[in-house]
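Input:
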Amino acid sequence: MRKIAMLLVLIMVFALAGCSGQNGNTNKKALLVVSFGSSFVESRQAAIDATEQRLAEEFSEYDFYNAYTSQIIIDIYEARDGKDVDSVSEAIERIYKAGYGEVLIVPTLVINGEEKDDMIQQLEPFVDKFAKVTVSTPLLTTYDDYLAVVSALSSEMPETSESEAVVLLGHGTHHHANSAYGTLDYVFKDEGYSNVFVGTVEGFPTYETVLDSLKERGITKVTLIPAMIVAGDHAHNDMAGDTADSWKNLFKSEGFDVDIVLKGLGELEAIQDLFVQHAYDALAQN
Amino acid sequence: MKSRSKRILIIVVCVSILFALGSCNSAVNQEGQSEIIDEFTFIDDVGAKFTIEKPYERIVSLYSAHTENLFTLGAGEKVIGVNTASIYPPDAAFLPMYDYREGPEALIAAAPDLVIVRPFINRNYPDYIKALKSAGLTVVSLYPESSSDFERYIMILAMLTGTQDNATRELALLAERLEAIADKTGDIEDKLTVFFEATKSSYRTVTVDSNPAMAIQIAGGINIADDVVAIETGSTIAEYGIEKLMLMADEIDVYISQRGAMNSGGSIVSIPQREGFHAIKAVQEMRILELNEKIISSPTFRYYKGVSEIARMLYPDVMDDYSVYKSDEALTRESYAAITVMFSHTPIFIPSSSHYYEREYYNHTYGLLEDVEWNDDNFDFIETAVMSGFMRSYENEDGSEYFDKDGLVTRADLALTLYIMGDYQTSAKNTDIIDIADCENEAIIQKVVDNGIMFVDSDGYFYPNQTVSANEAIEILERLEGNL
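Output:
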């Protein structure tokens, strides 16, 4: 398993030297934290900003930079608040022009999905321009990551009786990385958390999948927790909203007791620690 | 001036400048020059003259407001295609869609006898228009710019479709509906103050002559941004800015955010999260209204719904007077839908995304109840009650949905509403309910009984299928008030 982890990191590690126009001063280091972003200011502060701060403190010898992968969110901040937020390509170009020779990039993403692919695509033109580029991995990459996430979340989840369950709601995607959600569900159960179920808003497992499982187990009460970095739009609306097709009301209309935890993964210190660990792992393997 | 005559004056003024500027996020185009010459002849908004020999029968509408107005005029059956933003009425959303940003071939192949566009398309996609005309299609360009333009615009649509009588009736009905709202709110002494967020960009609002500003006035509100200047000549958008907003924070009773494809304002969740916004009185009291741009800024007959929604948020007790439904007669599902939405002061649901019908929904899809027409009087109440989960729709064998408007409300229906509206958990009380097995959803019945919102009789029977009167339903709903 360790070998697989190393291979995955190595695939994303670019350590090229001697190229034309390259910044060679590795004593000048930059940390770039890449997140999806959120227009929900307080949710963003609690999750993304807090994770950024944790990473900035941990890697204090690096100068801090951040970027969002969502252009829509970037545009909202610019239009609404007059606040400039960099895209990945803007940030890496800014870092390059500032003369940094080493850059550590930490994506605060849950899965190795479309956002991660886009990030890598935007980084690629700059790979040759630094003496050392290190890219760490999203939250759910290796088997060890799943175990660590299960451990981190288990301390946040309410104690459940036989008839009570925790439903973790992830975003879900058409990308093949959607399989991470099913894997997380499996690992929870494999680790003894038989009453934890993982569902997604836009992928698999679906609401029906989770509902069938809950009924099969005779569950009468569910606690909904977002499996997303920020408790933003999807958590407030698709999970906890007041329309009939929010997961809260879908479960209520089936007669379940429903509790809601509106806390993004990024708010959890244990998850922030995992992103820090991922960064160290990537550096160690580069 | 006495209140009644003052209200009438407001309505006259408002209707006279209603839809003056259409969508409030753009500058007025300068083409507006339509003119009705006689019963059969008119000039459109790009100066082209048309003589109607007979009503058109195969129409493609490339502007959502045109689509909506054609259906309202009763010409929906003549519409064979629409633009991608035309998702209302729901029937329109399932027509073939054409995009002027793509090639004209598909539209030409559909062989319409009339294509209705707006000057925006003429200006920005001249090659597309040229291709349609070269293919021999009749292309009429319309967009209401001024008071007389709206009425004239509607009457030109009526000429094109042979629906003049309907147009006259609908225009009168719109004025009546607006006056009815003004009548309800006119005598309220303590008027509330409103800030209207037109777009998230720099916290912009609207000019005093815009449709939303007029709506606030008709709804009996005071627009706090009554001294703003348009960002450019002809626009209804005006700068307000965060500094001024904070300066007026403790005077804003209600915060309205315009939502939609053109104007994506903040949501009731995101607005309170903005830095400094806790200082705004409306945010502290959670009196935030998300208002779909289609019912407040778009030049359609649905404008009165936007006005009504503002009035409901400002003066819920006056506007949501469900006591009018009080009766000892058995309660129909249609009336109950109205009662639940009024009782909970739930804003009416309207999809804001033009992609709404591109995905499937659990439980219910807006506008697809086969026994509820989009122009039924209680359409919004029924849609909102089902969309909020207060009431269930039913499914036919073929998967289509229906509501059963004339069906009677049962105690089990009431229990569902109470459970969705309230916040109840399983109780240790576990009341013995003799006929619990007769209940479709035992857990919900058990919880509303255990939590003391509904009761079993002295013999322990709940009678889930027993019908209720409006008086009984209202009495039980009002038990919730302390628990909402």
